[in-house]
């Protein structure tokens, strides 16, 4: 099953390279505005953060706005998806290869996220995004507090000790349902990384196991989303290519950093990421929706 996941991600990577590459060659004389050094730098920083589980979309959107890299705000969604697709795929390939994870758990949770995103595009998008973000934000903060108490050995969660590399029975069903929900919530802007990190920990898995699951899930989703943006030309070609080039380097460096960390330190990093994401969701829920 691990080989099936790796081959699938490899095919998605090939699809993205072909579609993206053909469009770049077709428009090689006019790649649009933007600075190569700034775009590459943005890709490096944001995909380094993405590999740590913090996410890349929000930091990229902020940096693109500050540096005025895009001609029109309408190109932002496409630029985010096209620019970060390859680096996210690389994250998945690296973590699935180097992190010990049960094949059935890996395959099931990634498949669940894909199904969830498809169902979510038809159902969850009808929900008020601000309400979902608000309650998800508080849920993440509460979860992070429980994780911290568990780390301080003040409480015990499911008695698993956070050393398992796979799920079975009822816990596997909970994981499948959870990741399916997170995949669905991605369609209204609730990222999968932090909730997946929290769920994996709460189910007693080793904190490292979250990385191949969450990066594999998103790595399978983003290339598909990118195809339509590329076909419509609704993205910045120069900026997206710069982000992709810088992002690949950022992922390689960050992956070595993550896999070399002591697990107790990694848990505290995950707790910080989950709290940060929870606060971000609550703040976003209180802002008026953009037109």
UniProtKB/TrEMBL annotation:
Transmembrane spans: 104-120, 132-149, 181-203, 209-229, 241-259, 265-282
GO cellular component: plasma membrane
Subcellular location: Cell membrane; Membrane
Primary subcellular site in the record, as a coarse category: membrane
Pfam families xref list: TauE
Protein's membrane topology: Multi-pass membrane protein
Keywords carried by this UniProt record: Cell membrane, Membrane, Transmembrane, Transmembrane helix
PANTHER family recorded: MEMBRANE TRANSPORTER PROTEIN HI_0806-RELATED
Record-stated family: Belongs to the 4-toluene sulfonate uptake permease (TSUP) (TC 2.A.102) family.
Protein's recorded name: Probable membrane transporter protein
